[in-house]
Amino acid sequence: xxxxxxxxxxxxxxxxxxxxxxxxxxxxxxxxxxxxxxxxxxxxxxxxxxxxxxxxxxxxxxxxxxxxxxxxxxxxxxxxxxxxxxxxxxxxxxxxxxxxxxxxxxxxxxxxxxxxxxxxxxxxxxxxxxxxxxxxxxxxxxxxxxxx
Length: 148
What we know:
The protein is of the alpha+beta class. It has helices at residues 5-20, 49-67, 97-103, 105-109, 119-122, 127-147, and strands at 24-30, 40-46, 73-75, 82-86, 90-96. Strand 4 and strand 5 form a beta hairpin. Helix 1 crosses helix 2. The longest helix is centred in the C-terminal third of the chain and has 21 residues, at 127-147. 36% of the residues are buried.
């Protein structure tokens, strides 16, 4: 069994919405062979809670406006560290970068086929690592300045 055309359409729209809101490391897996509850997972992350919320809101808005899809469930909203949108055909996980590293969902689903995503979404790969490196360098230079 493979992801349906509807699932792929939902994944593409959600991935593009996430990319438009500058999500990091967007990836999608076809989980239809291993899970009976959904066809595909979309994973995305952001470096802060506000951006996680912004990405989730954009995905929800675009899927409703462009495809008439509403989530049957939305979890994790209050903390905005890991928000899950369940559309039955797909499940979207938008995580704070720290949660993404800690839970490493990619490890769980690495044996599932990766779904092709729009170019903007593919271009986000490695952004979390770049951001972390930049932050570390900023912290180093900020600390150095205080010693003088």
